[in-house]
Design a protein that fits this description.
Chain B: It comes from Actinoplanes sandaracinus. The complex is a heterodimer of chains A (417) and B (540). Chain A has 417 residues and is α/β, with parallel strands linked by helices. In chain A, 54% of the residues lie in helices and 10% in strands. In chain A, helix 3 (55-66) packs parallel to helix 4 and helix 11 (286-318) crosses helix 15. The longest helix of chain B is centred in the last third of the chain and has 30 residues, at 392-421. Chain B is globular. The chains are: A alpha/beta (417), B mainly alpha (540).
């Protein structure tokens, strides 16, 4: 029991340590930001925009991308051959912006995001490929900053910030938003520095030649973004992460607890697949391999400790344990509770950076929801393990639009890897 | 890779303004990961400066160590803490009697962890005096931290060194820091917290560790809590104008609360948090200490306990106390010295509150802060000297050193001379020898002793439950229950000044004193230690 406590406490402390990376000193915080661009537009961008049953948000997204201040970019919208509604929206947008928007039709029988992206790769003509999702709100100045970041750092990959914004929708969306905040604001920077990074799903920019050499995305992986990051960093690609509150790509959280669970299951299962593929073994240093292993197993450790720590505490209080052991079971609570304290500070910071009003209710959600949210993550992790080992590797898409699309996943559910 | 084989039918127009298709990776314009702090700062305790601080510390420790067993006379409290540390080290719990939350236990847990040190040096003599050796590393840490805090408060090397020496060589320090007091642990942790919170790198984890160190200080001696505002001031000042201040505060609070909570948690898990019939409790102990403990009077009232105590401190060294008091007031106005000044002010105010309880070792907590503010005001004065007057500084320095040598030197010399030579514990040593060698049937005898000799008796072969702290006779029902025949179950009484101090309040001890005859006596008249045999036949 003491051993379990020590292991749990170590895990929680290491996670906390890394999560707080960006705020370690004022200097580290300053280094996580985009540098001010020099106004020069030297690179050309091909922005890939896979859309599937997302006709209601796609047009707005394209319109917003077209407002980019950068001079050299094209938008490649990828639609499925079985999805005429979205295709119609895409073609209309292409007609309205000739020379900027290209529509590519994906004829794969089994549809998922990596395959859609691979379909578009041969059409890419820019120096840099950028990936966005159909519901993203992209800032018009983002490309300029990315252009400058590529040139000033000599990076192969630039990962911009992604932020869920609708923290006020429900208690779990608040936790979800904060997860993104800590991940993109802080943790990813540590990964970039250590040379092992699971990339995010969008606002990610890769040099086209590097991407082509790496054979694009893995069409069978459920976390193609993570996989790409692992493969690129294993081959020594230089990744730069930059976060600027005003420039982040804004997204929305899954609208129901069920879809959050599905999304998280998919990610976790994807992490497992990446772990099993073993590309990370090519990382040059032992420390990087350890970080890789730890990161990819992370969700499962987190799930385990989310459940084990409360059980330990309950045992300490209700069972008649010797006092020393009972106290030891509380040791993992220290980093866990510190995490909640830092999340509270993070929520305040989040509110300030995005000019959102954080009410006492939201702090209450944060503190009271911490354990239920850990439970949700645990269920997702268990579900991922179960699905992976029973061979169910299909793509459970998270719906981003209204209720009329709830049965849209049926088509995507049919396939097997 | 699964892509469609369908050839491109439509394309976008040539991407406009594509001036360069190749990314120039050969010459990055900006270094990639520039995480170096803009203001590179030397570490304080490394290199030549480390040698200086280490050398001065060694000097002070030499004065502290010589004759550590002979002076000052062992106090009852030392015996108490040592016996409790012994209980921890031997796995008997937090005390050898029922632990009643009188103090948080961390200090004697640390003492127990250090208890192997005296054995290393083969120190002779009674247990309490030998165990003083274990305090030397703690004092060493305290001295170095005084230096470090001085430097981190922005003082010059010479001022920080002066602070270390003023603190370390004051006869009051040499006297008090030789003894085994919880306050020494507590103040060391608090100085550690202060040093961490003043971290020049403003690292989040330093702030968090500072919170933990504050909690450890309070868990070493609860009264250290009053200096918390000083650390908070330092935290606020050091994190000012930085983008990470809210995180620093969060980190500090996490460390403080999450480490500090283990003490009430211990009480809670044992079912001893709230008062109730039939058991001790943490909150009950607090209620007793805050409400029922009789005060020691005002320090301004002649004849009161506090007054006498302050007089005895002033007897050992008026210099550091008066100079410290005088330096504290202006130091409050100097921004960078404010944390130390706030600590000193609070500690002084607590000491002079009317009707409060002032323990004998209270001064231990004040001394380092006084030394820091004195050094700080010296530093301020030194900087005020105009730099363009070349000969002013050396001249003033010479005058200052000469003044110190003539005014303070003789006084400190005399005080420390006594510390280096006096044999105040000869009586205790002889009594311990007598108890170990001259009392027949030690395994069957019941002895009543003061706290100083308790561990020596246990080590000499008396059964642990038959060696009784004198005041437990009257105050601990568990002890009374072990003696069906009352005072007649006692065979020997060791009468010491501590035991005779307060005769009215302990009737059983008084009975023993009247129904006993002196078998052996040691020491001078005012510190007389008597081994008395109980006369069981005579009726009281």
């Amino acid at each position: 029991m003491i051993l379990t406590s020590v292991v749990l406490a170590t895990f929680a402390a290491v996670t906390l340590w890394w999560t707080m990376h960006a705020w370690r000193t004022p200097e580290t915080l300053a280094a996580t930001r985009f540098a001010e661009p020099d106004g020069d537009h030297r690179l050309t961008f091909s922005l890939l925009l896979p859309a599937r049953h997302e006709q209601s948000v796609l047009e707005h997204t394209i319109q917003r991308l077209l407002r980019s201040t950068h001079q050299g970019y094209e938008i490649i919208v990828i639609v499925g051959h079985d999805d005429p509604e979205t295709a119609a929206v895409a073609h209309r947008a292409a007609e309205n912006a000739p020379g900027r928007v290209l529509v590519v039709t994906d004829h794969n029988e089994v549809k998922n995001k990596p395959r859609a992206l691979n379909t578009a790769l041969p059409y890419v003509r820019g120096d840099v490929v950028g990936v966005f999702d159909a519901e993203d709100q992209v800032h018009p100045h983002l490309l300029e900053h990315v252009d400058h970041a590529f040139r000033s750092t000599g990076a192969d990959v630039v990962q911009g910030g992604v932020q869920l914004i609708n923290f006020h929708t429900s208690w779990f969306s608040l936790h979800n938003c904060l997860e993104y905040f800590f991940w993109f604001r802080s943790r990813l920077h540590l990964h970039a520095r250590k040379g092992f990074i699971p990339l995010g799903g969008n606002t990610v920019f890769v040099r086209t030649d590097v991407l082509r050499t790496a054979n694009g995305w893995d069409g069978t992986c459920l976390a193609e973004d993570c996989d790409l990051g692992v493969r690129l960093s294993s081959r020594g690609a230089k990744v730069v992460v930059a976060y600027e509150a005003s420039l982040v790509t804004r997204e929305e959280t899954p609208d129901t607890l069920g879809s959050l669970l599905k999304q998280r299951t998919r990610w976790n299962q994807g992490f497992l697949q990446v772990l099993r593929k073993g590309e990370w073994r090519r990382l040059p240093s032992f420390g990087q391999r350890l970080l890789a292993r730890y990161t990819l197993v992370g969700p499962f450790l987190q799930a385990f400790s989310g459940v084990a720590i409360p059980i330990g505490i309950a045992a300490a209080i209700f069972a008649d344990l010797p006092i020393g052991i009972a106290l030891a079971t509380f040791v993992p609570v220290v980093p866990m509770a510190a995490n909640i304290v830092f999340q509270t500070v993070g929520l305040r910071d989040f509110g300030q950076q995005y000019h959102l009003r954080i009410k006492p209710l939201h702090y209450a959600w944060l503190i009271l929801g911490a354990f239920p949210y850990a439970l949700v993550l645990s269920v997702a992790a268990l579900r991922a393990v179960w699905r992976e080992y029973t061979g169910r590797r299909n793509w459970e898409l998270t719906a981003h639009v209204g209720a009329h699309l709830n049965n849209a996943n049926a088509g995507a559910e049919a396939g097997v890897a | 890779m699964t892509t469609t084989s369908e050839p491109p039918q439509t394309t976008t127009a040539l991407i406009p303004k594509a001036r360069s298709g190749v990314i120039d990776v050969t010459r990055p314009l900006v270094p990639a990961h520039d995480h170096q702090p803009s203001r590179v700062r030397r570490r304080e305790l490394t290199g030549g400066e480390g040698l200086l601080a280490g050398g001065l510390t060694a000097l002070v420790l030499a004065v502290l160590t010589v004759n550590i067993t002979g002076f000052p006379m062992a106090s009852d409290d030392e015996g108490t803490y040592l016996a409790q540390a012994w209980a921890v080290a031997t796995g008997k719990g937090l005390a050898h009697y029922t632990y009643w939350y009188d103090h948080p236990p961390l200090a004697w847990i640390q003492l127990a962890a250090l208890s192997w040190i005296p054995g290393l040096f083969q120190v002779d003599g009674p247990a309490v005096m030998a165990a003083r050796v274990a305090m030397i590393p703690v004092v060493a840490a305290c001295l170095l931290l005084v230096y470090l805090v001085c430097r981190r408060l922005g003082m010059a090397v010479w001022a920080a060194a002066a602070g270390l020496l003023i603190f370390g060589l004051s006869p009051l320090t040499i006297t008090m820091y030789r003894e085994i007091y919880l306050d020494t642990f507590a103040v060391t942790w608090m100085l550690g917290a202060l040093a961490l919170v003043l971290s020049p790198r403003r690292n989040l984890w330093h702030y968090t560790a500072a919170g933990a160190a504050t909690a450890l200080a309070v868990l070493s001696k609860e009264t250290m809590l009053v200096t918390l505002p000083a650390v908070c001031v330092a935290l606020w000042q050091n994190a000012a104008r930085s983008s990470t201040r809210p995180w620093a505060v969060g980190g500090y609070l996490s460390g403080l609360v999450l480490v500090g909570m283990f003490y009430p948690l211990y009480a809670l898990l044992r079912g001893e948090l709230f008062p109730g019939p039939g058991h001790v409790s943490l909150i009950g102990a607090w209620q007793f200490q805050l409400a029922n403990r009789s005060g020691t009077g005002s320090i301004f009232e002649a004849g009161a306990g506090s007054h006498e105590l302050v007089k005895s401190w002033l007897f050992y060294d008026p210099v550091i106390l008066l100079a410290g008091l005088a330096a504290t007031v202006p130091a409050l106005v100097v921004r960078r010295l404010r944390p130390a000044a706030v600590a000193a002010v609070i500690l002084v105010l607590v000491a002079i509150r009317p009707g409060g309880y002032l323990p004998a070792m209270y001064v231990v907590q004040i001394l380092p802060f006084f030394a820091i503010v004195i050094a700080g005001m010296l530093d301020v004065t030194g900087r005020a000297v105009p730099a363009h007057r070349r000969w002013w500084r050396p001249a003033l320095a010479t005058v200052a050193v000469l003044l110190a040598a003539t005014l303070i030197g003789p006084r400190w010399w005399a005080g420390n001379q006594r510390a280096l030579t006096a044999a105040d514990n000869a009586g205790y040593t002889a009594a311990a020898d007598y108890l170990r060698t001259s009392v027949p049937d030690r395994a069957g005898a019941t002895v009543v002793v003061d706290d100083v000799l308790w561990l020596d008796c246990v080590n000499a072969g008396y059964p642990e439950e038959q060696v009784i702290w004198f005041y437990k006779l009257d105050l601990d029902p568990a002890v009374a229950a072990r003696m069906p025949n009352g005072w007649r179950d006692v065979d020997y009484l060791v009468s010491t000044p501590a035991l005779r101090q307060d005769p009215g309040s302990l009737p059983l001890v008084n009975t023993l004193l009247t129904n006993s005859t002196v078998e052996a006596a040691f020491g001078p008249a005012d510190g007389r230690i008597e081994i008395r045999r109980i006369n069981k036949e005579i009726r009281s």
